Amino acid sequence: MSWTRYLLAAAVAGAIGAAAVAQTHYMPGPQNIDLPADWQQRFIRYATVDNAARKIIRNLYVNPDALAAARPGQPLPYGTLIVMADQRARLGADGNPLLDQSGRFIPEPGWIAIAAQEKRQGWGEGYAANIRNGEWEYARFNGDGSRNNAPVEACFTCHLGTRAQQDFAFNLWDYVRDRR
User: Fold this and answer.
1) What are phi and psi of 148, to 5 degrees?
2) Are the C-beta atoms of residues 98 and 91 closer than 8 Å to each other?
3) d(CA 111, CA 142)
4) Phi, psi at residue 140, to the nearest 5°?
5) 2-30 pLDDT, tens per residue?
6) Which pairing describes strands 147-148 and 136-142: parallel, antiparallel, or unpaired?
């Protein structure tokens, strides 16, 4: 092998090795979560919640692989990705949400905000014990799916304060328990 080829091969191997190290290095933060382009078609909507105080409808989705692997009373599996997509409720002339025949809010078309919660092995390291949510990360997105760089500390606080005993997941843990 010529020195030129040897040096080129060594440079390529070094670059590949450096890329592998960069991919496995975990830094806490919302940048770890990507919103899949096909989440609306592929993910399973497992809950819809009317939020009267905010006059919104929360739609909760989970990736199918995680739902298939989830077991009642057990921590949710690594790779679980929960998406919460908010819609405005249609309002009447009095400013209150209009209701359908089942007494549920009627949604306006489109998303106004999207949030995601993802669990991966080793995630959560680097957070102080008073906010760490196991191995979960959180991220925010705009209604069009673009990243929203607003702080996510409120996500940690809310999930920690109410559902630590249920793997920091609100409705999904309940849904898994109740569907079997």
Assistant:
1) -110, 115
2) yes
3) 8
4) -120, 145
5) 444 433 444 444 444 444 444 568 899 99
6) antiparallel
